[in-house]
Amino acid sequence: MLLALFATFYHVFVPLSFPVLAGILLRRFKGLDTKPLSLLSLYLLSPAILFTTLTNARVTADDVGITVAFSLINLLAMWGVSLLLGRLLRLGDAERSGLTLVASFTNCVNYGLPLVLLAFGQAGLDKAAVYVVLQIIIVNTVGVFFAARSQFSARRAALAVLKLPSLYVAVFAVLLRLTEITLPPPMWTGVNLLADAYSPVVLVILGAQMIGAAPGEWQPNLQKAFRAGLALRLAVAPLLSWLILLLLGADPLLLGVLLVLASMPTAVNAVILAEQFGASPKFVSRCILWTTLASFLVLPLLLVWTMP
């Protein structure tokens, strides 16, 4: 089992490390500005991968029902815990929004999908696709609302959500699937080109954000937020996810897949949203770095526990 786990991480982390390292080097030696890349990801690449995933995913009614229920309940639970903790620690508005992003959204696409495929096989990947689609939709709607609340009123944050193309792309993809209409091959090729660019671009952003987080520049309130973010993502999230999945009666394979995906490190999208809407991106990027490093310890335990 240990040998299989080492092989799994070898095949997952080596490929993912290349764009992350590129982002680190570009930021360190060329002063890479990630804000234009964040705009590219948020308004173009993310809608493209959402469209391709929605149109190709294989789903069953039972899997969809449990996965939708789990996604919503888990989101509300993590949002509630992060909100309570932010108030108890007396964090500022930007740090509270950043803490919500750290607690609520996981790196289930770039990191989670390869891990699920290698650990659970194609059957696990099919189940994971439903959760990933929901997370992409949630991140690009609810996630924007969470991030924008640090700067805007609730009304303006809601309007910011409605301005994002991902919401309308999701509706369009579902309509195409229901009507069994397909795009012409040249259009599919163009969409797939954009979708394929999603992972390397967001991982370059992650690397650049990692190197940009200097420990000496932090204030005490950011240190508090950072410790709270680690606790929520590494301890609270796996425990809550496991309890929710037990209550929903998920079968062993679905439970294992969803538990692993919900326990992944903080999503790269979180720092993209934090940067776009001023939700303490320095704090969020550090949480991404350290939850990713800590996942080398946490995820093997979960995999040993949940793999059939």
Q: How would you sum up this structure, described in words?
A:
It is a single chain. The chain is 84% helix and 0% strand. With 308 residues, it is mostly helical. It has one domain (2-306): Na+/H+ antiporter like fold. Helix 1 packs across helix 9 (185-212), helix 5 (108-139) packs across helix 11 and helix 10 (220-248) runs parallel beside helix 13. The longest helix is centred in the middle third of the chain and has 32 residues, at 108-139. It is globular and about 55 Å long.
Q: What's this model, at a glance?
A:
By secondary structure, the protein is an all-alpha fold. 84% of the residues lie in helices and 0% in strands.
Rg over CA atoms: 18 Å
Shape: globular
Give the helix proportion (percent range).
Answer: over 70%
Structural class: mainly alpha
First-last Cα distance: 12 Å
Order of helices and strands: HHHHHHHHHHHHH
Number of extended strands: 0
Biggest beta sheet summary: none
Question: Mean of the pLDDT scores?
Answer: 83
What is the CATH first-level class name? Mainly Alpha
The CATH architecture assignment turns out to be: Up-down Bundle
Count of individual helical segments: 13
